[in-house]
Amino acid sequence: MKIRRLSAAVAVTATSALLFSACTSPAGGDNPADGESTEATATADGPCKADLGDIETADGEVKVSIEDEFLGYNTNTPETYSVYNSAVTERIFGSFWYFGDTGEICADEEFGTYEATSEDPLVVEYTLNDEAVWSDGTPVTYADYLLDWATQAITEDGKVTDDGSEAPLFNHISGLTLGDYVPEGPQADSPDAKSFTYDYERVYADWKILVGGAFPAHVVAEQAGITTEELVTAIQELDLPVLKKAAEFWDKGWLSQPGEVPDPAISPVNGPYNFKADGWEAGQYLTLEANTEYWGTPAATKELTFRFIGADAQIQALANGDLDVINPSGPTVDTVTQLESLGDAVKVDTNQNLTWEHLDFNFKSGIFADSLEAREAFALCVPRQKIVDDLIKPIDPEAVVMNAREVFPFQPNYEATVSEAYDGRYDEVDLDAAKEKFAAAGLKEGEKVRIGYSAPNPRRASEIEAIKSSCDQVGFDIVDSASPEFFDKDLPNGDYEVALFAWAGSGQIASGQNIYATDAPQNYGGYSDDTVDAAWETLASSVDEAVHAEQTVIIEKQLWDTLFGIPLFSHPGVIASSSTLSNVRNTAAQSGVLWNAEQWARAS
Question: What single-letter DSSP state applies at residue 392?
């Protein structure tokens, strides 16, 4: 499993693989003739979705694998905020932006535009497409975005604050941080306005992704027994009795029971796809169909079916024609070999992506908590190069040992950052130096080191075997502590000496603050360092790229010098698709292969 790295604006302890909900964007191809299928050929000249021109939706179905059940229309609650839920909701909701195929932030100008009209103070103006409507015909307006702000700003006592003493009124994954940055909320001339302004009280480095999609305010208002205009007034005046009714529906009214398609009367969409009536069989599949009320470039194919199939069964399903596209998690050498054996029937693509493997120390208890020498002894015996050579390079020949956390080996600023922040001291195994550090730490032969990770995971089991073979020679006793409950219990409870898992990265700038800063929500091991804390504060409160680069070097160097943990490698990504499909593109970004699913088309 991989855990989604959350922005500082989305601060929560994650117990599953998490994901920012991205958006949809233009789909396309050529106009079909006489009802024939359309082949839409992407021109992937850049990281964003290709502009394929005017098309009509072609009949047919594309079937893609996801590995978990759909949870609900509202994907922004802690109960629903998962990779696989977002795989669906990204197809049905529009947004001002999405992550491109290498993690860049791409603007979806078909949905709307936004620009900073002032940098000091930061003022951002948003403008929705005049034609943007919900599938029930209601325009997408300022009211929807005022509600979006309210769900991330208003406390259960009817205030706007983020001083840590108040609980949020709405069960939003991001807590109260929007109220902290923009306490006055977005401003507009009227509830039905197509433009609104965010006036920041303080700058946030990732402001470009703080406002994306929104949920329908008119539905929430109706369910609370009021008009949309009255809901807008209630938010502006912090009318708590009214807002409590709105929050009750927002929190629970959009949750789904497996197999029960969301009621279109309360679950309108504003993206290229909509739910298909009777299109959900629990544990088997969920089918979307082209949104006939979508104002933008339509979906290339009429139906998109998500089949709930585990990674171990996806290749056979692709071979049988039960799937058209797969993106199996945790690919192994055998994954690529099996896919290549299918020959010309499938197209296979591998890459390095923004998900990365790492070993993190427990600073709350155990032998590594208060001993840098102990951590150094362990770092000096971990065979990072062997792990990459044996387990990753057979999948991606370009794979390298990763020596940073905030930049990736395939990004242009990687070498410059690493050259300033890391001196290569742990590049090679040095058992003699490790033994010296082991002794200096006062450790005794046979010191148990439980390495915890989520089971089952054959690749991580192989990583542990390699570490044990090396580090047991130093005096450690490496114990494979895999558990199906690792993310639910072991990691949050600190029941490990070393944690082995992956963060799912993105195009965010300041998301690492939630991992490395003192008492941050995703700082599971309890690490604390004043230098790191100060650097994150400086980085997160600036929009200057030079400041970001400078502070990233400071952070990376200090994390190496104090040994927060040990980065291993950028995950290899493997996708495969039927040769009859066009526009299926690999991506390093967190959305996986589905990032441009509305553009997939069957070749004619």
Answer: I
pLDDT tens readout for residues 44-62: 567 899 887 888 999 999 9
Sheet with 195-199, strands from edge to edge, namely 112-119, 122-128, 195-199
Question: Which H/E stretch holds residue 2?
Answer: strand 2-4
**Element holding 113 (H helix, E strand):** strand 112-119
Amino acid at the residue 113:
T
Q: What is the pLDDT of residue 237?
A: 97
pLDDT of residue 591: 82
pLDDT per position as a tens digit, 117-128? 998 899 999 999
CA 411, 416, 417, 418 torsion-angle sign:
positive
Give the count of alpha carbons within 13 A of 243, CB side only. Answer: 28
Per-residue pLDDT tens over the stretch 371-423: 999 999 999 999 999 999 999 999 989 999 999 999 999 899 999 999 999 99
Task: Using CA atoms of 525, 528, 529, 535 in order, give the dihedral in degrees to the nearest 10.
Answer: 80
Q: How far is CA 430 from CA 9, 119, 140, 476, 574, in A?
A: 41, 49, 61, 14, 33
Check pLDDT > 60 for residue 9: no
User: Tokens 């980065």 belong to which residue?
Assistant: 567
Q: Each residue of 577-599: b (16+ CB within 10 Å) or e?
A: bbebbbbbbbbbbbbbbbbbbbb
- The pair of structure tokens assigned to 192 is 């039905």
Tokens of 143: 């009211």
By DSSP bridging, strand 565-578 and strand 58-66 are unpaired
Six token digits for residue 215: 């949920």
Contacts of 19 (CB under 8 A, 6+ apart): 4, 81, 82, 83, 86, 504, 590, 591
What's the whole-model pTM score? 0.83
pLDDT at 458 over 70: yes
Whole-angstrom distance, CA of residue 51 vs CA of residue 363: 49
Q: Find out whether 124 and 198 touch, Cβ atoms under 8 Å.
A: yes
What DSSP letter does each residue of 277-301 carry, written as one string? EEEEETTTEEEEEE-TT--SSPPSE
Phi-psi region of 316 (alpha: psi -120 to 50; beta: other; left: phi over 0): alpha
The token pair that represents 305 in the structure block: 């079916």
